[in-house]
Design a protein that fits this description.
The chain contains 13 helices and 13 strands. With 393 residues, the protein is α/β, with parallel strands linked by helices. It folds into 2 domains: 195 residues, 3-Layer(aba) Sandwich (Rossmann fold), CATH 3.40.50; 180 residues, Glycogen Phosphorylase B (Rossmann fold). The longest helix is centred in the last third of the chain and has 16 residues.
Length: 393
């Protein structure tokens, strides 16, 4: 059956674990807000709960949403509900994201209509980065079984594709890599008034050295390493140094205590801004972006920083090295995971020699616009969806 021959829009359902503020949710909202609304009809199903990121949809009323609110022992009922949603809304393509939604989506697929199944892996493959032994083997076998029934397996990073192949032996040539795409933004240097305004909002001075981090306050993001590395810097009183952390999560209280124990100096401080719904506004205020994740695909926040001409200091996970060091120039710094000494060294160099950051920022703008633009990502997803719709039974 050629679904492109029908006059009705293509109905796509994105299945996510929850619609909290985060990188995956920004990705979903960018697809929904920017793909052709005359051709596509979108819905979003949350396995656990909805969240504040639903506000990112430009026309929220046009996007159907369902929260399954899965509780222990009630997974079967949730799958029946998802199955009914997919069937009653005549979904043409369902797209699950990461391990937490793969099982539910696979088991909920209707058997009596030609629905296309896309699975997207965007970060920690197999869900738990600490998984090992029998748990790792079982998850790998399950994932191989599930993705073998997909019409297309996609990743946002080449390293994630290689990791899936390594764990599950799923053929690498069957995995499509579509990098994240970010809207083009003006350089933070060119928008001096916005830069000063954003700094004033957080209580920072125009000459302060400001390092930023954006993400959920969870273990895999390794904020503990970031705070310890930042606290180890030698800072002069004539140029205050700030670490701005944007995001929330279960580790916030613990991380605030750590920051207070390591730093008690008004010239050298950590600021927890909490969740900011429209976090793009913070990048003009930064001199340097930092990402200390233990596991990552292709960080949305990293690319967002580049789109404002902000250099990035990141751990060597996912495609960070490819983006920052191997794509038409150097736009930042890479250190090994958990390497506090190297992080502190690079932070100190950037603080003491800010002229290093100018050329990196110029490269950052060029690299993002040439290789990680929103238009490029949208084109690839549009081609993927239309190819799947045109696929014969």
């Amino acid at each position: 059956m050629n679904l492109l021959a029908t006059e009705k829009p293509c109905r796509i359902c994105f299945v996510v674990y929850r619609m909290n503020i985060g990188g995956l949710e920004r990705f979903v909202s960018r697809l929904i807000n920017n793909l052709d609304k005359d051709f596509y009809d979108f819905s979003v199903v949350s396995i656990a709960s909805g969240g504040d990121a639903l506000e990112w949809f430009e026309n929220r009323d046009s996007v159907k949403s369902l929260s399954l609110k899965v509780e222990p022992g009630k997974a079967r009922q949730a799958r029946l509900t998802l199955h009914s949603f997919l069937e009653s809304n005549k979904i043409d393509i369902v797209q699950s994201h990461n391990w937490g939604t793969l099982d539910h989506t696979h088991r909920s697929l209707p058997k009596n209509r030609p629905i296309r199944f896309v699975h997207a892996e965007r970060g920690t493959v197999l869900g738990n980065p600490a998984a090992k032994g029998l748990q790792l083997i079982l998850r790998a076998l399950l994932m191989r079984f599930y993705v073998s029934s997909c019409d297309q397996l996609i990743c946002n990073a080449h390293e994630i594709a290689r990791k899936i192949n390594r764990y599950t032996l799923y053929p690498l040539n069957k995995i499509q890599v579509i990098p994240n795409g970010i809207p083009n933004n003006p350089s933070r240097i060119e928008t001096t008034s916005i830069r000063e305004q954003q700094r004033l909002q957080f209580g920072f001075g125009p000459d302060d050295f400001v390092v930023g981090m954006v993400g959920r306050l969870v273990e895999v993001k390794n904020y503990e390493l970031a705070i310890k590395s930042f606290a180890s810097m030698q800072v002069d009183k004539d140029r205050p140094c700030r670490l701005l952390i944007v995001g929330d999560g279960p580790l916030r209280g613990e991380l605030q205590q750590l920051a207070e124990s390591k730093l008690n100096n008004k010239f050298h401080s950590v600021h927890f801004a909490g969740e900011i719904t429209h976090c793009m506004c913070i990048y003009p205020a930064l001199d340097l972006m930092m990402n200390t994740s233990k596991s990552e695909g292709m960080s949305q926040a990293l690319l967002e920083a580049l789109s404002f001409g902000c250099p990035v200091l990141a751990t060597d996970v996912g495609d960070h090295k490819k983006v920052l060091l191997e794509t038409d120039g150097i736009s930042g710094f890479i250190v090994k995971k958990d390497d506090q000494i190297s992080l502190t060294t690079h932070l100190t160099e950037c603080y003491k020699h800010p002229s290093l950051l100018g050329p990196l920022g110029q490269n950052a703008l060029r690299i993002q616009r040439m290789h990680y633009s929103l238009d490029s990502m949208l084109k690839q997803y549009n081609n993927l969806y239309r190819r799947l719709l045109n696929k014969s039974e």
